[in-house]
From TrEMBL:
Residues 36-55 bind DNA. It holds the Pfam family TetR_N. Coiled coil: none annotated. Residues 13-73 form the HTH tetR-type domain. The keyword Transcription applies. Keywords: DNA-binding, Transcription, Transcription regulation. PANTHER family: HTH-TYPE TRANSCRIPTIONAL REGULATOR RUTR, MYCOFACTOCIN BIOSYNTHESIS TRANSCRIPTIONAL REGULATOR MFTR-RELATED. PROSITE patterns: HTH_TETR_2. This is TetR family transcriptional regulator. It comes from the Bacteria. The lineage of its organism: Bacteria, Bacillati, Actinomycetota, Actinomycetes, Micromonosporales.
Length: 206
């Protein structure tokens, strides 16, 4: 019985992943308006009803693959040595996370940015997804540091770093920052945030 349940769960996860991958591909290749339950289902060779059993909207389907990969990042963060500073943990796991989420696919980054700019539902779904991921990261940080995620601001503030970093480096990278590989941009960003951004300080008197 346990084996049968495990097999069913693996099949469900595989179907969910295939539907999300198909939705993402349709968005990047043809635009978000091409992402319909019928089109996604046809790409995976299932019924539109199956699509609706897994996802409440096309926006959820498009972003689900990113959400699942982000959960892998959260687990990688949890697996870092207990005594390691959070900033160092970010430097170790965040480059792989961002490469895993987008890879070296400028077209995909542009398509995502355009879809969020043009479609309020897509932007709302993206923000909701980021909120879920930040909460999971905050809980890991609280576990590692002994903080109270319900009362202390520090875990919540630190949990926002991955999303801030991803937005900044993808914007710069997609804009054609010469000579900067995506992982290097991530590490540079973490180092600047950890050390304190000099632009946030008062300018010296002249």
């Amino acid at each position: 019985m346990t084996s049968d349940v495990g097999l069913r769960e693996r099949k469900k996860r595989a179907t969910r992943a295939a539907l999300s991958d198909a939705a993402w591909s349709l968005m990047t290749e043809r635009g978000i308006e091409a992402v319909t339950a019928e089109a996604v289902a046809a790409a995976v060779d299932v019924s539109p009803r199956t699509f609706r059993n897994y996802f409440a909207s096309r926006e959820e389907a498009i972003l689900d693959g990113i959400l699942q990969r982000a959960k892998t990042f959260v687990e990688a963060l949890r697996a870092r040595p207990a005594g390691e500073p959070v900033w160092d943990s970010f430097a170790h796991v965040l480059p792989d996370m961002i490469m895993g989420l987008l890879g070296e696919r400028e077209r995909d980054a542009d398509a995502m940015a355009r879809a969020c700019a043009e479609n309020p539902a897509m932007l709302a779904q993206q923000l909701a997804m980021l909120g879920r991921v930040e909460r999971m990261i905050a809980e890991v940080i609280a576990e590692r540091t002994g903080a109270d995620v319900e009362r202390d601001l520090a875990p919540l503030l630190l949990a926002a770093v991955p999303a801030i970093t991803m937005r900044a480096v993808v914007t710069r990278w997609a804009g054609g920052a010469a000579g900067d590989a995506l992982p290097d941009l991530v590490r540079m960003s973490i180092a600047q945030l950890r050390d304190g951004l000099p632009l946030g300080r008062a300018a010296p008197p002249t």
